[in-house]
Amino acid sequence: xxxxLTLFFSVCLAMTVFAQGWPSNYGGVMxxxxxxxxxxxxxxxxxxxxxxxxxxYFSLVWIPQSARATSPTSMGYDDLYWFTNYNSSFGNEAxxxxxxxxxxxxxxxxxxxxVINHRGTVANWFDFPTETYNGVTYSMxxxxxxxxxxxxxxxxxxxxxxxxxxxxxxxxxxxxxxxxLDHNSANVQKTVKAYLRMLxxxxxxxxxxxxxxxxxxxxxTGMYNTDAKPQFSxxxxxxxxxxxxxxxxxxxxxxxxxQSAAFDFAIRYTAQRAANSGNxxxxxxxxxxxxxxxxxxxxxxxxxxDTEYRSSTAQQDPLKKDTLAANAYxxxxxxxxxxxxxxxxxxxxAIKNMIDARKLVGIxxxxxxxxxxxxSNYYALQTNGTNGKLLAVMGSGFVPTARWIKLxxxxxxxxxxxxxxxxxxxxDLASGSYDGAQTVTxxxxxGESGAQLVYTTNGTEPTxxxxxxxxxxxxxxxxxxxxxxxxxxxxxxxVSGIITRTYDVVDFTPYAIKVYVNADxxxxxxxxxxxxxxxxxxxxxxxxxxxxTAKGSxxxxxxxxxxxxxxxxxxxxEFQITNSTDxxxxxxxxxxxxxxxVNVENVKETTxxxxxxxxxxxxxxxxxxxxxxxxxxxxxxxxxxxxxxxYTLSGQRIAKPTQRGIYIHKGKKILVK
Length: 673
What we know:
- This protein is of the alpha+beta class and 673 residues long.
- It is built from 12 helices and 39 strands.
- Helix 9 (265-277) packs antiparallel against helix 10 (323-331) and helix 10 (323-331) packs parallel to helix 12 (348-361).
């Protein structure tokens, strides 16, 4: 009996620890895997294809609300289905399950965007979907809506329909537009609990990001997490002061145990004000991650889908400059940093170096830190990791003492390691795919006077007899091959502090493509874009890769230039393909943007596009024809069966494909899915 009781209490203790909101001493970094309207970049299949690369830097990836919303194209914040319909703007249920499973197998936990403050309806004000999961039917009614919803408009609608709202007012801030749920309702609580358990059990999510938690009392987040027991939980409690963030985090307590982390809006505004103003001393400002006992529960960030610049008509409240310096700040701090997808896409090598340095030093969410030095033109902070000490400098004009060895840096940011706190090698080019031969600088971080760098480029462990290099030596990584670089420190005949970098370097030369479009086969609504028009023109709206529409707002660039191809006139525009993963995506339209075509995606070679009279939804279909090479002639001294390279249909040689498409390999066409 005693043994059974011991086992029972051990299990209870383990469950309690597991449900404490966010792991302690956690060294992982999170990626926000979307931005506003990121329907292409955040497709489940697209994210899954990046799992190998992402897993080397991110332990968690937060993805959008993944069920079907009220709008066919939606970021998910007008949530509708919870249990049954997972055909969203980002893919279908099978693709979502595959993504989460692949991430899990690569060591990445997927964070679900949970929208439970409000919920959409199928038709009228209170027509919530009825759904069945695991043999249990879940249905909400008007009685599950707070009585002060939509500032009384919901009550007016309820009276007109002869139904009753809840007797409870909203436990948080109200939000017009959708039904605010009454979390005091037993039915709402039962449904939410089942929904959250399903996300963990059926889909395999690792945890939750709770949307708009100011809309309902913090105690409900605690209640739901105690029931579901996610490994990770973070609330969007949009307060700019750490005092209010602490109140929300404390409000999630169950049995005096905190049940959720919070996004650190306070540190976000601190970083934004410093970067936008250029007064780096302002980095000494507020932050939940700076509060004793709360850094564990701080998920730090500098930009997200709500604060980013979206367009000239939706400017939001973004970082206006020094994006990398702001990221360098949070990646050197305690808390769990969350990197914004746009920043990752634009500055991969720099952010990879920041994360590599953070992990090398052993910084985690409860590490200690202190201001090292500060002035209006710079701010320096020291963070103590489990392996060593990191000095992060934002701004310019500050040079640390010789005790600090510079690892990496860029405009207005630099990372240093205390050479007396650890001994390690370093290479300043992060692992990844690159175009053309690359240069890597090797650095020795050590207080040992007789240390030497030793390295290999074939993936073997460096030894005392490996190639030696002085501190600061630059080596070349050749194009057209995959190179595994290992660098270590040779001290008193022993090699230690070994770091590994893997480079897939493509032999790539930038090239130009032309995109041709013709609307002569479309119906009369395209009359102004037909070649028979008096002054024909068509709008090119394009995005993706290194390309952004010059006009910058819908409907894009009005193109009038034409060329004749095979006896037929087309509008034509030229684009530069600048790297091996570069693509251009298009929508074509007339007038002020209507009618328009469906998306034409992943164009990276000269292409003919003909707009038809058929429709897909409200948009016109197109027929596309790539006009790149159709075959590959192999010279006698370079036989196809021994050629290790792949070739795009436009004739560019690459080491291996990194995008889906058709390639020539060993004299045959290869379809890469």
